[in-house]
């Protein structure tokens, strides 16, 4: 697992290079769970950019538990992400669920996300490994650290050295107060096992907006290289993951709090 030569992942964005790595400022990825319409994605992009984020996140293809839940706007949402990118200069991170969509996703995405539910979709891992865009690999909700690193290994082995590991919470016995258990011990463990950069996602990790700031600060104290935070202009009306989404105002405050801790941009 020791990939010494892969220590930093450097991502070109319209605003310049952003480095994910141990000796760089914490890279901030923020935005809604799903891209819902042009006004909301552009507004969210402007707000998170003003607060200091480097990347806009937003799902076009959504892996929903229920087939009757909002599935994402698909290709048209990719066009809206392109508009938000053009408007703000932010980098774009969005999820691929089906390798057939990879090419058109890569036209707008600067980093391609493989979600928790696809962490061991080996054919998808081989495909994202065989294309040039950096890959954000989320930890499966029941994946061991070895399984997660081996999933990363599939991407590396296919020829793509630019993998970022994202902890987004795992399933434990107590789902009453938090959606998942955010496993911040990965910060200590992965520092000994791999040089791949680490991202922490306290939004999916807790499932509750009010818990996100505490865990974001804890992640920075633990040495994370990056944070992913869900932000929505009107969380109560969000089509997915509203309860865990920060308002732009709360995100502004969080960024100020993170700056005090240091290392954050
Ligand atoms: C997401 O980032 O919106 C998402 C679906 O995350 P995960 O794969 O971690 O559940
Ligand atoms: Mn989400």
UniProtKB/TrEMBL annotation:
Keyword Transferase (UniProt): yes
Transmembrane regions: none
Superkingdom, natural source: Bacteria
MF term (GO), any: aldehyde-lyase activity
Any Gene Ontology biological process: aromatic amino acid family biosynthetic process
UniProt keywords, alphabetically: Transferase
Keyword Transferase among UniProt keywords: yes
Domain DAHP synthetase I/KDSA residue range list: 18-260
UniProt-recorded name of the protein: Phospho-2-dehydro-3-deoxyheptonate aldolase
Entire protein: shown range: 77 to 341 of 352
